[in-house]
Amino acid sequence: MTGRLLLAGSLAAFIAGSAAAQDVTYEVDGESFEGYFAAAEESRGLVLIVHDWDGLDDYERRRADMVAELGFDAFAVDVYGAGNRPETMEARIAATRTVLGDAERMQALMLGGLEEARRHSAAADVVVMGYCFGGTVTLAMARTGEIEDSVGYASFHGNFPDGPAWPSDTAPLLIMHGGVDQNPSMSDLAEFVEEAEEAGLTYDVEIYAGANHAFTVFGGGRYQERADTRSWATFGRFLEARFGS
Question: Which tens digit of pLDDT belongs to each residue from 83-140?
Fold first, then answer.
């Protein structure tokens, strides 16, 4: 198992493309959305991926393929709407505020995406994960306690949203954070840890030296291969533990 994880976690050796992957158009409350499903050869669980602030694109598709390579079905959920892929900073900020500013709608979009994912995967248990904005949505959904059969939540350089009190049965959380990230900052992370301790949550935090925000974004100006590789390996171990493999 260790050898397989190391191979899958090595981004340099990774060959993108799931053997069974497809874009999926679906509806939530009469509105069209476009997700992406990547099937594992012999799935041991389902991973729901929440996209970054620019919407679902090839980055999330690649990550979904990587999850499938680890042996888990992956569904990249769309919370912006089909065709809504903002290109400017202003448009991206507006899109994230629209989603995060309406908790009821955000929850409906996430549950609708999960419902669609379950049409494609027979796996019962689910881990929710996301990048940046997607990590924030992931933790916001963890606070609601509304994801049925959730066994874990993982956030890559996401923020820590306010919300209702943490449910007592919240599944384990995995937080991966850049050491020089200012959005969220180390102070924000410390506040989350204090809150998590008070709520009695099960959580793990990894901090990567010298890594800035968006350290996992391939080709981006803040990409750090060391932090990306280490965080992906940690996430792989998290999946193995949460799905009992």
Answer: 999 999 999 999 999 999 999 999 999 999 999 999 999 999 999 999 999 999 999 9
Q: Quick one: tokens of 198?
A: 């008070």
Residue 38 bridge partners (DSSP): 21, 74
Q: Which two tokens stand for residue 99?
A: 């989603």
117 Cα distance to chain centroid = 14
Number of other CB atoms surrounding residue 205 within 10 Å: 15
| Size of the chain in residues | 245
pTM to 2 decimal places? 0.91
Angle at 99 between CA 152 and CA 33, to 5 degrees: 85
CA-CA-CA-CA dihedral for 204, 209, 214, 218, to nearest 10: -110
Specify the pairing of strand 31-39 against strand 73-77. Answer: antiparallel
Which segments of 147-223 are extended strands (E)?
150-156, 173-178, 203-208
